[in-house]
């Protein structure tokens, strides 16, 4: 019997380049299996596909080893933030307040 195949996409954006790969995987594949089948780990040696955060269409998934992909899914591999957005906003607000106080 012929195994059904579905099309998905795998996306990763490094600091200096990005990749969007179309991948055909067997129906019923897990997210982790689809990532390994995509070969994206070979393109980006710094990726640790076993531990990096992963999402589908912008929503982080908890367990890539059990979540089954659906046709048309876009698996996104996230890299760690370089700065905490809350801290950056706090520093920007403090700098703006300081500038405003100096100009009065």
UniProtKB/TrEMBL annotation:
<dbReference type="Pfam" id="PF03658">
    <property type="entry name" value="Ub-RnfH"/>
</dbReference>
<dbReference type="InterPro" id="IPR005346">
    <property type="entry name" value="RnfH"/>
</dbReference>
<protein>
    <recommendedName>
        <fullName>UPF0125 protein CS076_07495</fullName>
    </recommendedName>
</protein>
<comment type="similarity">
    <text>Belongs to the UPF0125 (RnfH) family.</text>
</comment>
<dbReference type="InterPro" id="IPR037021">
    <property type="entry name" value="RnfH_sf"/>
</dbReference>
<dbReference type="InterPro" id="IPR016155">
    <property type="entry name" value="Mopterin_synth/thiamin_S_b"/>
</dbReference>
């Amino acid at each position: 019997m012929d195994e059904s195949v579905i099309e998905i996409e795998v996306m990763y954006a490094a600091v200096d380049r990005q990749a969007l790969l179309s991948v055909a995987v067997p129906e019923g594949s897990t997210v982790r299996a689809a990532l390994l089948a995509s070969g994206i780990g070979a393109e980006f040696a710094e990726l640790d596909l076993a531990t990096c955060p992963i999402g589908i269409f912008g929503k982080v998934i908890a367990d890539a080893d059990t979540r089954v992909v659906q046709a048309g899914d876009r698996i996104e591999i996230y890299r760690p933030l370089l700065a905490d957005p809350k801290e950056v906003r706090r520093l920007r607000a403090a700098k703006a307040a300081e500038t405003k106080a100096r100009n009065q």
